[in-house]
Amino acid sequence: MLRVLRVLVAVILTAAVFYFAHPSDVIRAAAGADWRWLAAATASVLVDRALMALRWLELLVALTPGSRPRVASVIRIFFVSSFVSNFVPSVAADMYRAYALSRHDVRLAESTASVLMDRVLGVLSMAIVGAIALAFVPVQSASHGIAISLAAAFAACAAAGLVVFSEGMSATVLRASAALPSNAVRRIAASLTDAVRRYAHHRDALARVLVMSIAVQAIRILQAWCLGEALGLALPLSAYFAIMPVILLIMQVPITINGLGTTQVAFVTLFGASGVVAAAATALSILFLVLGVIGSLPGGVLYATADAPATPGAQAS
Questions:
Q1: Which tens digit of pLDDT belongs to each residue from 121-153?
Q2: Model's pTM, two decimal places?
Q3: Secondary structure of the chain as H, E, C letters
Q4: Domain residue extents for the chain
């Protein structure tokens, strides 16, 4: 039922955006895109996907010694989960990634912790890039909303950081979980908290992942700029650096499938505040989503040619 509701919301939001932007104008804008800029954006997808896979590999440093799977297996899981994310909310794709890794003799709590840290550092990198850009290039009427969104992202990351680095906070989480009625849930919460806490001993790895995450966000913003140039939008690169981090954050919120609908609304609202007409902003949003789908296609190939599932052997805690 929830899946149907997400699809319905995505369809309604997308249809509304197209209606108010006038479908013929959107199609005309997209059809006139410069293929050279489109090619540049497409080529850069290979770089950002490689960096995203490498940062997850780096985060596996906290796994129990001797339990780290082969690099090829981890890469396969990452790209397949990237493909799966086209059909489910981002949280479901993360759950798939954690579960798939646990099928390779990795404790489920540890595989989940690695995915959580990957997500947290990704969100933190978006907030950092957006805050720096907004400090130098405020986006007029959209500045207030962007600042609130970035502040919320920083707050969420700070809370996660406290669990990792603060014994007091982790103890508070454990005490809170002890009040839960289910023994299984309490056990899972304790195991996951312990797995996340291990990253406090791998600060160098976290710093490297954060740097890679910032690079990923910069590349994705450059992709949006290339698409904007292809559409002939008269916006400076600095405006993209201020706007896109918030849109990327919105795309992570598991309201609809793959951010469809919410992404279009975000593009039209934020780019519209910078003077971009609705038709062009809508075309830009569609091209940006298509670019993400293209980047996930290798995962589709791997999924289609997958062997039988790995022999079950993962520990459940």
A1: 999 999 999 888 887 766 655 667 778 888 999
A2: 0.87
A3: CHHHHHHHHHHHHHHHHHHHHCHHHHHHHHHCCCHHHHHHHHHHHHHHHHHHHHHHHHHHHHCCCCCCCCHHHHHHHHHHHHHHCCCCCHHHHHHHHHHHHHCCCCCHHHHHHHHHHHHHHHHHHHHHHHHHHHHHCCCHHHHHHHHHHHHHHHHHHHHHHHHHHCHHHHHHHHHHHHCCCCHHHHHHHHHHHHHHHHHHHCHHHHHHHHHHHHHHHHHHHHHHHHHHHHHCCCCCHHHHHHHHHHHHHHHHCCCCHHHCCHHHHHHHHHHHCCCCCHHHHHHHHHHHHHHHHHHHHHHHHHHHCCCCCCCCCCCCC
A4: 32-304
